[in-house]
Amino acid sequence: MIEISTSSTTTTLVIAGDLDLAERDQFPEVTARVVGLRRQLLVIDMCHVTFMDSTGAAFLISLADAGRRRGGATVLRGAAERDLFVLEICGALDLFRVDAVHACEPADGASPPDTADAPA
């Protein structure tokens, strides 16, 4: 599942589930919508991506490349190490800014444990 939201300067894609060959039919429509919005910043939220293959990587690369040609930037938020590895193997990791600070919410929707009061 891919959801698109926008603000005046940013388009955000929230991706959940697999980003692979089985999902490729929706990639052209999503790409056309994102490119048509012409925002300077594209944030791709990958917190809930369970699997990404080279087809999914090619989709992300095409989005980042289209943004870069317009002078924009693409940020990967919540990408797992395995997903970053796929992009690195494809030689495309430098097309993205990686948000290493973002902390994803757990998949069950529960808040992360509060460690401020934990004993030392």
Automatic annotation (TrEMBL):
Gene3D superfamilies recorded: STAS domain (3.30.750.24)
Residues of the STAS domain: 1-91
Coiled coil: none
Superkingdom of origin organism: Bacteria
Protein name: Anti-sigma factor antagonist
Organism: Cellulomonas shaoxiangyii
